[in-house]
């Protein structure tokens, strides 16, 4: 059981049991240690989520070779809804399914989307609730800062 506080900057990333929509490699935050991880919780019904996907695709294309891993965690109960969303908003990055909301509960997700920037040591450094295009530059600056830090 988790405590009642939302995960916040300075806490270690929780271990989550996630599924992959492609039934291939399951995303594992612990296995990604040593890289900067952008974890984004989203749902098919979320308008701002649709706006965040092009931004995350750009980040992925620009920064994958510098050590950025993006994991978009879908919280829809029905995986078919996530698959329909992904047909209209394709993802170049890793997508995971959290149909029982276990991971969302561990992170104590408060909004859709909710993004967590995790440093190379597995520590949550920044939390963003919602997505606004006006905040994209700040998100990118924070990602760049974490990428430039030595582990």
UniProtKB/TrEMBL annotation:
Domain Thioredoxin: 7-148
Listed Pfam families: Redoxin
PANTHER family recorded: CHROMOSOME UNDETERMINED SCAFFOLD_47, WHOLE GENOME SHOTGUN SEQUENCE, THIOL:DISULFIDE INTERCHANGE PROTEIN DSBE
Protein name: TlpA family protein disulfide reductase
């Amino acid at each position: 059981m988790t405590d009642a506080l939302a995960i916040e900057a300075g806490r270690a990333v929780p271990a989550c049991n996630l599924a992959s929509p492609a039934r291939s490699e399951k995303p594992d935050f612990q296995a990604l240690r040593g890289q900067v991880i952008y974890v984004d919780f989203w749902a098919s019904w979320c308008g701002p989520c649709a706006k965040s996907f092009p931004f995350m695709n750009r980040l992925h294309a620009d920064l994958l070779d510098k050590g950025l891993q993006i994991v978009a965690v879908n919280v829809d109960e029905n995986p078919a809804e996530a698959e329909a969303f992904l047909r209209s908003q394709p993802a170049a990055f890793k997508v995971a399914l959290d149909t029982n909301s276990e991971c969302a509960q561990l992170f104590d997700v408060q909004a859709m989307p909710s993004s967590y920037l995790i440093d190379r040591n597995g520590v949550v450094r920044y939390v963003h609730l919602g997505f606004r295009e006006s905040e994209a530059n700040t998100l990118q600056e924070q990602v760049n800062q974490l990428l430039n830090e030595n582990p």
